[in-house]
Write a structure and sequence with these properties.
Elements: H1 12-34, E1 41-45, H2 51-59, E2 64-69, H3 72-84, E3 91-95, E4 110-116, H4 125-135, E5 136-147, E6 153-155, H5 161-174, H6 185-191, E7 194-203, E8 206-207, H7 213-225, H8 228-233, H9 239-253, E9 259-261, E10 263-271
Parallel strand pairs: 1-2, 1-4, 2-3, 4-5
Antiparallel strand pairs: 5-10, 6-9, 7-10, 8-9
Helix pairs in contact: 1-2, 1-7, 7-9
Bound molecules: S-adenosylmethionine.
S-adenosylmethionine binds near residues 48, 68, 70, 97 and 99.
Length: about 270
């Protein structure tokens, strides 16, 4: 299978969920890891709603950012959000399929090729990492950030949630994708011919009592809920059981001792 399948859909709720996570949690820490100088030319692979593309663009006032996105709906919302923020011209959002990217004269000219939460949705992630290596100049940076779903920890354990999470992870391999792609990022850089130079991860967890916890734990529920149809269609979980586990999860979210750990794997390579 060479197509990519994005099971979470592009509904307003899903888009709002990703926006909240971007603004509050992910973008500030992702930017810190990137440590941009301010003059880089950046190509963002699978730019989605474009919040992080815009965050990078703000950090490179002497540079520029191009976001490549396949979904027309995501692109339309990305442009609408950019316009609403008075940043309509900050990022050039282009419609394109990163699995079949023809950069023409721009190949080999970028300083940074970046992708976040895209490789996990692709049956052939190496093809994209090779395209990223091809996009940057010699010495240019290739940044891969993605999930390793196995790192989720919840305590006290909400009844049934780990079973449901495992069912959710199975939806990835059923369609040829890798729910554990995070642990493969350095290997992908190596296989694509880049020199790996960095491996770390970005924590996004928290506990009851932290302001962020509501957004964080709601996001976790959103990840599973938006995959409900796919999980049920693949007979990985029973509908009644699914709804009961989610109900129990809501009870857990309100506990004064609820704690959640998750992290995004982050790796950097250089084009030789
Ligand atoms: C989870 S979103 C991540 C968006 C953004 N990178 C971020 O971190 O917020 C993944 C995006 O990749 C896009 N996508 C999936 N397959 C793609 C492909 N083959 N070419 C371009 N975009 C793709 C999806 O439409 C979706 O908008």
């Amino acid at each position: 299978m060479s197509e990519s399948t994005y099971i979470h859909g592009t509904s307003e709720d899903e888009q709002a969920r990703l926006s909240r996570m971007n603004d509050v949690l992910l973008n500030p820490s992702s930017l810190r890891e990137l440590a941009l100088r301010g003059d880089e030319r950046i190509l963002d692979f699978g730019s989605g709603l474009g919040q992080f593309s815009r965050a990078m663009a703000r950090a490179v006032p002497q540079g520029m950012v191009i976001g490549i996105e396949r979904s027309g709906e995501q692109l339309a919302t990305a442009r609408r959000l950019a316009a609403a923020a008075g940043e309509a011209n900050l990022v050039e959002f282009r419609q394109g399929d990163v699995l079949n990217l023809d950069l023409g004269d721009e190949a080999g000219t970028f300083d940074v090729a970046h992708t976040r939460f895209l490789l996990e949705h692709l049956p052939d992630p190496l093809r994209v990492v090779r395209a990223m290596v091809n996009a940057v100049r010699p010495g240019g940076r290739i940044i891969l950030a993605d999930d390793d779903h196995d790192v989720l920890r919840l305590w006290p354990e909400p009844p049934g949630m780990y079973d449901l999470w495992r069912a959710y992870m199975r939806t990835y391999d059923r369609i040829g994708n890798d729910p554990y792609i995070g642990r493969r990022l350095v290997q992908l850089l190596h296989e694509a011919g880049a020199q790996p130079v960095r491996n770390t991860w970005i924590f996004f967890g928290g506990c009851a009592g932290m302001e962020i916890f509501d957004t964080l734990s709601r996001n976790m529920a959103g990840v599973v809920r938006t995959a409900r149809e796919t999980i049920l269609e693949m007979s990985l979980f029973d509908a009644t059981h699914f709804d009961e586990v989610m109900r129990q999860y809501e009870v857990w979210r309100a506990r004064p001792d609820a704690a959640l750990w998750f992290a995004m794997a982050y790796a950097e390579g250089r084009r030789c």
